């Protein structure tokens, strides 16, 4: 019923209708999101959501407009107009802790080759930067140095006053698609198949100028890098179009672990089905990562994989978590994971462990069946049978949110206000915890009765 009210549900694509997609009934007892608010303002694909504070977020997309929303009520607070083409990146630039005036800025980049800086409280356009020779594809803030970086065909460093401090020479036609900060005043940039390490040199008594130096290029990936995030202070992880997952040391930039040998730990494996899943390269593309202290969670094609950092192997997976490619994932408290997909759905998973006797060899996986990339030394060596009990893990579906009629691009999680999703259907949906909203409504009702003096009469 819900999918028809909102405007349509997801439709199977390609071979999706034949895949063993895990389903869940209408009685989703562990799914708290039983209420929703539909927000209509954009008139094109909504690709970005960014949290401003505990109760506000901003949205942006292909219409070139940025909206600021109240995450609790769904009220539209601000509309920011200034770009003439689609938004390509958005970040926030918080005030320094030592600064008395707390003013958070919003930075947006666009295909119109401009970056605009906005005041998040008033919506005022602080400044417009239009000196770029190419589209800025990514933005990042180095809070400790109080600077921000823009990445396109070159890499530029800016201060809070929006002065250009330094820039690299032309890097490549592909351009920089992702940036993360690593130790020693360094950043790592993904540009096509390459990772480029840059070091920022701050002014000193000897040199009063900023500088940015290319330190090293890492060439271990064999295809374009689609995802790049920090795991912790000592490591970062990258994922490529052909399913390469590499964990890097953030201090010396060496490879800590390499994985293409994703496998399904369950004993029932259909080889023909695995081959079908591998026939298209985007079926194994790593679109997004999230992580916690123990694991890296990877969106691989239509599936979800949990890679344990200590054991250096995949410990759980759902090969077909969605009907289409998974675009974004996030780790929640209580060992829960949320994923969204091109199929228009948002799904909630729980990582569960169970004790079982490991009696069969672990399959070597279907990625290496096709000869992609390097093969681990143990790839063709079956794991020896274990006599003792071994812990196995699984990703169990506990919630399925069907409200969007097209690809869900990204989402935000608010601990107190629920889940926010945006989509190619131009809509934003606030998914609310039904029990919590019911309690809040009751509380507001009692407060109103008390203010009007009607509470004692009712009692």
Characterise this structure.
This is WD repeat-containing protein 41. It comes from Callithrix jacchus (White-tufted-ear marmoset). Its main location: cytoplasm. It is built from 4 helices and 32 strands. It is mainly beta. The two termini are 39 Å apart. A hairpin with a 3-residue loop joins β11 and β12. It has a 4-stranded antiparallel sheet. It has helices spanning 2-6, 271-277, 434-452, 455-458; strands at 33-40, 46-51, 56-61, 66-70, 76-80, 87-93, 105-110, 115-119, 125-129, 138-142, 147-151, 155-159, 164-167, 178-182, 186-191, 194-201, 211-218, 225-232, 235-240, 245-249, 255-259, 286-291, 295-300, 303-308, 313-318, 326-332, 336-341, 345-357, 389-402, 408-414, 418-423, 427-433. The radius of gyration is 24 Å and the shape is globular.
Low-confidence segments: 1-18, 263-279, 358-389
Strand order of the largest sheet: 1-32-31-30
Q: Specify the structural class.
A: mainly beta
Average pLDDT across residues? 84
Instruction: Please give the alpha-carbon distance between the first and last residues.
Output: 39 Å
Radius of gyration from the CA trace?
24 Å
What oligomeric state best describes the polypeptide chains here?
A: single chain
Main sheet characteristics = 4 strands, antiparallel
Number of extended strands: 32
């Amino acid at each position: 019923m819900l999918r028809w009210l909102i405007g349509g549900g997801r439709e199977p694509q390609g071979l999706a209708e034949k895949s063993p997609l895990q389903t869940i009934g209408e009685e989703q007892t562990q799914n708290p999101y039983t209420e929703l608010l539909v927000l209509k303002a954009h008139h094109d694909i909504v690709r970005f959501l960014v949290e401003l504070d505990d109760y506000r977020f901003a949205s942006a997309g292909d219409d070139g407009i940025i909206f600021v929303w109240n995450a609790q009520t769904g009220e539209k607070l601000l509309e920011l107009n200034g770009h003439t083409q689609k938004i390509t990146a958005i970040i926030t630039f918080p005030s320094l802790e030592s600064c008395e005036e707390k003013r958070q800025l919003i930075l947006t980049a666009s295909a119109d080759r401009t970056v605009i800086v906005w005041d998040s409280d008033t919506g005022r356009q602080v400044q417009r930067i239009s000196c770029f020779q190419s589209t800025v594809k990514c933005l990042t803030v180095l809070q400790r140095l109080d600077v921000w970086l823009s990445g396109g065909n070159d890499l530029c460093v800016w201060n809070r006053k929006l002065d250009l401090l330094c820039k690299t020479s032309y890097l490549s036609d592909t351009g920089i698609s992702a940036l993360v900060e690593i130790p020693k005043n360094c950043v790592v940039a993904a540009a096509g198949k390459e990772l480029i390490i840059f070091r920022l040199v701050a002014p000193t008594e000897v040199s009063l100028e900023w500088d940015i130096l290319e330190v090293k290029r890492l060439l271990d990936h064999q295809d374009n890098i689609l995802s790049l995030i920090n795991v912790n202070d000592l490591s970062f992880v990258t994922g490529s179009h052909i399913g390469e997952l590499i964990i890097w040391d953030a201090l010396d930039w060496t490879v800590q672990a390499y994985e293409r040998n994703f496998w399904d730990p369950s004993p029932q494996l259909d080889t023909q089905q695995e081959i079908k899943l591998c026939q298209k390269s985007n079926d194994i593309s790593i679109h997004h990562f999230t992580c916690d202290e123990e694991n890296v969670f990877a969106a691989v094609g239509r599936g979800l994989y949990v890679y344990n950092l200590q054991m250096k192997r995949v410990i759980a997976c759902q090969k077909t978590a969605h009907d289409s490619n998974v675009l974004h994932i996030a780790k929640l408290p209580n060992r829960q994971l949320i994923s969204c997909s091109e199929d228009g759905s948002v799904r909630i998973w729980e990582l569960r462990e169970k004790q079982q006797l490991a009696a069969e060899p672990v399959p070597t996986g279907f990625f290496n069946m096709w000869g992609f990339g390097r093969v681990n030394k143990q790839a063709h060596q079956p794991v020896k049978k274990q006599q003792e009990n071994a812990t196995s893990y699984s990703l169990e579906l506990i919630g399925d949110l069907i409200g969007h009629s097209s690809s869900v691009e990204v989402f935000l999680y608010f601990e107190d206000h629920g889940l926010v999703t945006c989509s190619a259907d131009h809509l934003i949906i606030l998914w609310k915890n039904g029990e919590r909203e019911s309690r809040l409504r009751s509380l507001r009702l009692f407060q109103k009765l008390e203010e009007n003096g009607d509470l004692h009469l009712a009692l």
